[in-house]
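Case study 2.
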Amino acid sequence: MMFMTLCTTIASAQETVGNDSVMTMEKKAQAKAAQATKDSLERVFAREDSIELANAAKKAKQKRDWSTWRPDAKRALWLALAIPGAGQIYNRKYWKLPIVYGGFVGCIYAISWNNQMYHDYAQAYIDLMDDDPRTQSYNQFLHLGVTITDANASTYQDLFRKRKDRYRRWRDLSVFALVAVYALSVIDAYVDASLSEFDISKDLSLRIAPTVLNDESSFSSRNPLKSSAVGVGCSLKF
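Prediction:
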């Protein structure tokens, strides 16, 4: 009896050990399968990343075709408003830059010059009117050997006053000219960018040929000789 019990216990132990071995082998197989799946996914993702990088590098190497490029009108407008001449640079109309910047430089120089002359003549007029011998800045505008006396004082007062007003008017006009140059540069950039989208066919032709003009009115139909006339026909193809 004891021998049979011992045999049963040994058999149970062997069966348990066998089951544990099978479970361990199954877990190892599952772990290997999971690791293989992970490795395959990593290889797929690495391949996709390499393809994307290659495509990005290929696109970066490709040069832009400037013959088909068209500027955006709104971007040209904002660039011209922010920086004078930037709209012309964006539109690739570099030959307009000397005109734009030349206009700005000329207007700024005119403002500076006329403003300086206005202040000089204004000070000379004030010194001439105050009858103070210590303030004689007006002498720099007199010819050599010419002095201001009581006889010609009124003449020079009127002369300095007119010149002072003239240079002030020219200074103000120079300011308006500067604003006009700025506005024209902005308008030019916007219009130029807008017209770049205007499609003009390469087959642009004008044909002029003699033709017969028919008058289909009821009055002309009564007289066949007056129902038609010879004229010139023009056809424009674009």
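Residues 56 and 156 are 78 Å apart (CA to CA).
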